[in-house]
Amino acid sequence: MAIASLRSALKERTAALHHQLDQQVGEFTAQDDYADYVTRSYLFRATIEPRLAGDGWQSPLLADVMAQDLADLGRSVPKTQTSETPRANRGERLGMLYVIEGSSVGARLLLRRAKAIGFSEDFGARHLGHQAGDTARWPQFLFVLEQTPAAEHEDVLRASEDAFRLALDAYTVAAP
Questions:
Q1: For residue range 42-60, what is the model confidence (pLDDT) as tens digits?
Q2: What's the CA gap between 97 and 58, in Å, rounded?
Q3: Which of 54, 108, 162, 176 makes an SS bond possible with 132, Cβ 3.0 to 4.6 Å?
Q4: Domains of the chain and CATH, by start
């Protein structure tokens, strides 16, 4: 059975996970809290970005930019598990990209918070500047998403849930 709007289905199916993630990220009002946020965000991006390789929509890769931000913050780049990543099919990639591209919307708010505690697009918050800078990406991605054939919808939905869980894992592990 075809889903009327893939975006609506994604929103509905990931709402609880998205809310949980927002709670885990929380607010940062001090530089140490912000550094923890960047460290955890790096763990997520460094884990998921290798899975995004493929044809079609390309999302900016931010793990290296986050590593620069961590250096600004006086933090080491945490080690991540390196393992062979199976190539995702188109639907799986779009599901993961839904989470990645959607985070750019929240990055605008997070960049304002980072600036309030002394960081900028040139120091400590480069990755947020990259995410927040291109406001046209999200609507363009949604257009691409809605062109997804119905046969791929379940892959998109499942992969988006998996991506949210991966992010939750990064934000719930003991402090690196």
A1: 999 999 999 998 888 999 9
A2: 9
A3: 108
A4: 6-172 (1.20.910.10)
